[in-house]
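Milestone M4 deliverable, item 7.
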Amino acid sequence: MKILVTGGAGFIGSHLVARLLADGHEVAVIDNESTGVRDNVPASARYVKGDVASLADLEAVFAAGVDAVCHIAGQVSLIRSYTNAAIDLRTNVVGTLNVIQLCLKYRVARLLYAGSMQAYGNTPVIPTPEDAPCVPASYYGITKYAAELYVRTTAERPDLESAFNATCFRMYNVYGPRQSIDNPYQGVLGIFLGNVLRGEPITIYGDGVQSRDFVFIDDVVEAWARALSNPASYGRIINLGSGRQTSINELARLVVEVAGGGRPCPILHEAMRPGELRSVEADITRAREILGWQPRISFEQGLAATAEWAARSYVAVKP
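Output delivered:
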């Protein structure tokens, strides 16, 4: 297949690009490099620097021929969604509408969308299944859920002239090699690793009892690859998490233990930030049933691999 990966120079996108190429597909990538790194993209992929929020940038890629789209590009920082809500809306909602519009124009029959656990908000249902009510608690959650609704509603339209089969993944806390360790606005595990490697204190916002569900990048990519040509996933929402809660306090302790080399690391607490979720754990029953998918990498294994990669990366760029 000819597959377009939006945001393909980023953490998740670049891993997916490598997997799709290994599976024998032709892959095109569009990325505006706001957080992505071009060097992450394998040379055999067609690369276009462009913004999904620009219809002209995006159409140039579609016009070259596309069979399926993996739409991962997005503004993914909870904090930046508050400091610049217009950019959050433009990237996540307008960018997704552009993808949908061009899928219909060029009769692209398959779309996989990277949604977010943030759609659920502070749900009392833990672990959380896909049919739990969605009440986003942050600006970021609102835009990701709105974009998901546009995808799902378009796929259900009876007036379409050609097939449009969509799958929406609600992604939990994806981590692994290539996750940024120097971006203070996204990826709590990467932030903590960067703190430890640079000898900085770790800052926890709130009491640290709040939990997250960490799922390793290789497991996430496996799920996307399985869904691509699987009709059972058409029209479905699928959680991608580990099904395990880890508190932020426990995360900090483990990162210091694994990456700190025995050095003490101060842990500071500041006030909880807006939009932060309290308890997070995915119900992954549907992913098992539809995709035959089960996370294979334990958090301990994944953290060790990520910490090793982060240490090598830090040494490589350290002055």
